[in-house]
Amino acid sequence: MATIYSDPSTTIYREIDNAVEIPGKRAPLVLGGRDFTSVTEVVTDVNLKPAPFGWYVGFGVAFSFFLLYVFCVGMLLTTGVGVWGNNQPVAWAFDIINFVFWVGIGHAGTLISAILYLFRQNWRTGINRFAEAMTIFAVVCAGLYPALHVGRVWLAYWLFPIPNQMAMWPQARSPLWWDVFAVSTYATVSLLFWYVGMIPDLATLRDRSKARLAEFIYGIASLGWNGSCRHWHRYERAYLLLAALATPLVLSVHSVVSFDFATSQLPGWHTTILPPYFVAGAIFGGFAMVLVLAIPAREWFGLKDIITMRHLDNMAKIMLATGMIVSYAYCMELFIAWYSGAHYEQSLFKFRALGGPYAWSFWAMMFCNAMVPQVLWVRKWRMNPWILFLVANIANIGMWWERFVIIVTSLNRDFLPSSWGLYWPTWIEVGMFAGSFGLFFTLFLLFCRFLPIVAMAEVKSIMPEAHPHHQEPHKQTHDEAAGDYRPDEHHVPKPKAH
Amino acid sequence: MEAIQPTADHATSSIDVIVPTVVGLCAEFDDVTAVTETAARVRDAGFKYWDVHSPFPIHGIDHAMGIRPTILPVLVLMGGLTGCLFGITMTAWINAFEFKMPAPFNWTNLQGYQFFISGKPLWSLPAFIPVIFECTVLFSALTTVFGMLLLNKLPMLYNPLFRLKNFRRATSDRFFIVIDAGDPNFDRQKTAELLRSGGAVSVETVDE
Question: Which of A200, A248, A485 is closest, CB to CB, to B171?
């Protein structure tokens, strides 16, 4: 394994291991000796060249699952929520589990696009675009669940404070109503962030597409962007402001989702640890989903020079860290249940972990979220995309079990043994859950086909050639080398082609 | 590649031959350093109506061009305060106040409601804060995006620069300095010379 990234003249680019830390040196984030031209080409080719056969296969599979979703929702709407297995005491089941699961997945996209931007983590540029797309599609999947769970779907607009002749307003003290605002604001801001980030890249597609119709549509979508530096100046400021706004927003969204549980009186839900625990879990699950999408995408779309092993390595480290936070939260919940001396809380956690009917789900969660991610401590395994892919999938499954554990084990046994009951999903619920993956992947594959999947402008701006005087080492002052803005000291010489 | 025509001017154009009006000069660069240094020289030469076009934001170009900071953050602050005020008013109105508005404003569908539940105070501000916060963020974000687009005068689908074949590379891998013919300092020959001496790969005229 080559560990050279200091001497470009002797480097075979494919062999650069940019995940190695060399003190005092910045690892290159774009490999393969690519310059601006070839970054544009490799990314726009995904959209402008005919789709590979595999895309049609994938789209066909995703779309058939989407049809399953449509069918199950049709059954739900024509028959009523009775087609679900929800009952008393388990009134919240698959619908809310899947809502929390999907909205949590979205969080990694905003974390990458906003929080890592504020921290000047330049590696985010390779993955932020499709992580943001993942956010939006996940929020779409999430938002449909509570909307369908209201029962009378045709009255779902009552959730919003719309002036009406009945003098009837929502209850602003209810966490469920906070959720309406949190999730709809989150969806709107994510969409704006995604679109604003995409305008320059849509302009690139406009300028490179040969087909008249594509040029026209990309032309409209890019709003006439012409790369003016006066525009860039306001654009960058707007991007920074959006990042600064999205950061507290993303933390608030999953906190508010956790308030749905934490503000209730139910043992197992009524804990103050829930907001940070939910946010960490959301980032853990979201990064797992980013890895699940990124590992195949970089392989199939030829983006290995832009989504490098360093990117995967960094994401694996974030997964490991957030996985440790959720593991800590699981243990702390158990500890507090014991330490509080609260009878019902203690019983509930005894049922949850040891004797209850769903104790197996607790251990499934512990296995997937607390134990399996520990393999990421080993660098050799982090460097193996197959192992990463497997661990990320297991983490996704584990995060789904986490929501199952929180919701079903808390609800199925509450204060009175006479009101205890069990819950099992019906085939319609299972179909809707599988179908929501169909919806997600249908949207995602359409995105991969028609929109720029890598933020080209941002990737170019972190390449060494993007900085004036990059060829004159004496001009690189200590300040510039120390600040994160200048990514790389060394320079890969650009082939002189005219 | 130079395409500077000596007779293309409004005043001298005859009736028979339609000579396009020159609206500016467009110089192409293939290097960030050259474009930044030339931009600084154009700034020092006192030009006002000109711009640099690049596929990504160039670090330090604001200084080289003498761009003053944008007013956008102030707008966003005002948008955020408006959102905050909106959130406070809305939650208070729909849950805490029920008084009748005077005659022209007494629309039924805007009538407030005293939502009394669980013995909580009608105006329970702490419980309203999540909604107020989300309103603040929503209004700020909308102001940021639409403020940025408005200040940039976007969408603007027509631009004479889009006629230049090479300008398509402004969104990919080339850098352009465009000087408007309406600038008081604009002189076709001298300005072209200034741009060329900065290392431009080519200088072209931009026609109306």
Answer: A200
